Amino acid sequence: MTTTTETRLPTRPDGVTDAKLFIDGEWVEAVSGERTPVIDPSRESQISSIALAGPEDVARAVAAARREVDEGAWSRVSGADRGRMLWRLADLIEEHREELAALESVDIGRPIGEPFFGEIPLASEVFRYFAGYADKIHGTTFDLPDLGGKSRRTYTLRQPLGVVGAITPWNAPTMITAWKLAPALAAGNTIVLKSAQEASLSTVRLVQLIEEAGFPAGTVNLVTGRGSVAGEALVTAPGVDKISFTGSPEVGRGIAAKASGALKKIVLELGGKSPQIIRADADLDEIISTVGTGVFANQGQTCASGSRIFVQRDVLDALVDRLAAHADSIRVGDPFDEATQMGTLINERQLKSVSALVEQGREYGVDVVTGGERLGDRGYFFKPTVLVSDNDSPVARQEIFGPVGTVIPFDTDEEALRLANDTEYGLTSVLWTNDSSAINRFTKGLKAGSVWVNAWGPPHPATPWLGVKTSGIGEELGTSGLLAETVEKVVNVVG
Asked: What is the average pLDDT score of the chain?
């Protein structure tokens, strides 16, 4: 949850400028002139509006990115200079940390301390990390035999893919936008960025900082609006070489189908239903706060949320009591109140979805230990919720994307592994134990892109971020994510 320090946190913005599109270095209205309101989810009131890009706007953005990567100024920028621009951008993010955090908080309703202490500094760290790689992307040389009596020198070049279409989610817009942009720009690609309709304000400000950092016109372009219109136009645009998407499996499957027809490269991160496995030897008093953070951070609207909590039966009652007490102690309220530990869901649709899934759980026979209902009648607040269930209930199978933790008992390690892997998802997982042999068994046996042991948190930019099964295709971050932004060309020189 939010960490309190002596630092004074940002206050709610007095007013937010209506957002335009950014195409070829200019801030412009959508060709249609259409806009949609931006709603503060904690007050259910309009705070701004964003332009609704259409296919013509997307086509212009793609054309600008295509020109720039093929023959524009960006195509001639050295790796060292790309790194300097990325480092400058990281500095600007730090300088405007308060503003970016406030925009993210008012836009999606999360406590101001979370983006201020977490996501915004992490975004800066991501740009700085990949800035260091921009002049270190290289190929491989080969010692091969002569060909036809002539000497042969063979090597590979790592070159940019071209135009990357990046489609970002609403739950952590600044950080995940950094995940997609930093390695792509370090490798020399250009970007057409489609921000989430529900949360574009901090992304618009980030793109303004990209402009200030000196990136040439056309290098990064921003289109805002509906996924079904602007997002689909970006996926199907012939000038786009790769689509990077973070969102739901349903949308991800549609993107994969459309992109595959044009043989575009894709990276999909499609959420999870991640397990936290608590063995009887874990110190419950020591771990309960972090277990709770893994469930309730960002109102549970986190792809890596550890919302399936498997507990060895010997300590089941003790864990449930502690987790329920932790949930009841969380202060839910105004995201800009420094005492607030949990804010609001993103919109009314998400509130109804979370409420409906908990109701399905009740009908199934799940034990609602605490919470399970809306809080108040203004703002999309939902009480921190603890359920006890088996692994077959709707609340154990579906990604709720709300502040709902489902506790599931197990007896043996073998049963815990089987239950944890019995899901269509495989993004991340958490193990709580002091037994080194159990750590070896679980880290090998868990089917997930990452495993935390005795901790839970965001990925570091040096490590790859990926999912297995329905949780995704391809890698972001780390050297794997960086190389995925390049194409390797083989060069044979004979004579």
From this structure: 97
Cβ 428 vs Cβ 272: under 8 Å: yes
pTM attached to this predicted model:
0.96
- Which one from 211, 232, 269, 475 is the annotated catalytic residue? 269
3, pLDDT greater than 80: no
Residue 269 a catalytic site member: yes
Which residue in 442, 465, 464, 462 sits closest to 453, CA to CA?
A: 442
State pLDDT tens for residues 89-118. 999 999 999 999 999 999 999 999 999 999
What confidence score (pLDDT) does residue 292 get?
A: 98
Encoded tokens for 334:
């105004």
Q: How far is CA 181 from the centre of its chain?
A: 12
Using pLDDT thresholds of 50, 70 and 90, give the confidence band for residue 29.
very high
Name all domains of the chain by residue range, CATH numbers in brackets: 21-270 (3.40.605.10), 275-460 (3.40.309.10)
